[in-house]
Amino acid sequence: MKRAASPNGRPLSPPPMKRKIESTTTSKAVASFFKPPSQKEPERLMWRIVHQSLVVGLYRDPSQPRRELTQPVRIAAFDLDDALIKPKLGGSRFVRNASSHAWWDAVVPGRLKELHNGGYLIVIFTNQGSISLKDNAKTLQKDSLSLKNFKDQLTYFMRQLDIPVSVYAATGNDHYRKPRIGMWEELKDEFDLEGDGAIDMDNSFYIGDAAGREKTDKRQKDHATSDRDLAANIGIKFQTPEELFLGLETEPYAHPFEPKQFLESALSSPRGNIPFTKQNKQELVIFCGSPGAGKSSFYWKVLKGQGYERVNQDILKTRDKCIKAARQLLEGGSSVVVDNTNRDKEARAHWVQLARDLSIPIRCILFTASARLCEHNDAVRAHNSSMNPESRMILPPIAFRSFAQAYVQPSLEEGFEDITTVHFDFEGTDAERKIWSKYWVSKFST
Question: Domain 284-436 - what CATH class?
Fold first, then answer.
């Protein structure tokens, strides 16, 4: 039954209140949605993918002519996370959407506009390993969720800034990833800045938080040195966000591994490796040393010409296969080099036993290169085909960390006839020396 109305005709109770819904859609966006395509405002942030690895974005007003750059061009380059933007209070730096981050400091947008108005080309170089380009490999019309979120976030901040900005985001561990200079090279190609004197190197700079600084009462320890190293590799000034935006003083800094200083030290104080020569008609030689210590190069340079056959686990995949191959070669009368890490006594004992079984003398060559030197060598090799004759892929940091943790120095008591120590000495052309002298590792594992 219906409830009777009040005598004066008014309802007995008030009608339910309608829920007010806050909309995040602007009237401008609604109007644009209903406009025909010919009347819609062109997108200001345009994107492209380079070599299925580098995400490139260019923000500018398409209705305005592209500003002609007067050479030499001054470049103001920035890292993104914790340099221009930061997670909102209580948020995560890994969450990517328009509302998850804020400007690193309130002065950032104004300072960027000042630089733009002063004639600087504003650029962002950022490592974004969490971005997946998997879907883009299948179709250029579908972005992965991580890529879409990154684009949405950058669009949000660039619209607030509303000045021309170029964005370069390295998604893989290749020549684009900082501190390697692939993004810088792409920038030069994009703006036709390849010629000598096209860039004002003295007045260009790079700002980033990955500066290798130690922990303070106001800040955590920097996670890496990649921003500082990128600037050094390019040859431009480096500053932290605190120095540029807040005017703080430069903090003291010592790099964990200086390639140039290593080469200079080696030239001024050569350690003089003892030549290794064959002592027996037939013998088994095993290497002991970290990945990247120069073991394979030493084989090709010193031992191959002396008639040694090489057994290598990177090629054969398992130790059992290596032992089987070495046995066959030794039983056939050859001398053999085992080009593996052989990091501890247990690993070396297999080869000592094989030599005893066949009554063949066994010798050991110990490679002394430090973990950081080895990581550097590995990165140089992997990213420079002219210095990588075996086309080796870059190793994960755990490869160096696990070797260092398990390493036990070999001794004659294990059964070796002798142990020869080999220190790493760089050998190559002047061009290769210049390549090796740059920074290649974004974060050392030890």
Answer: alpha beta
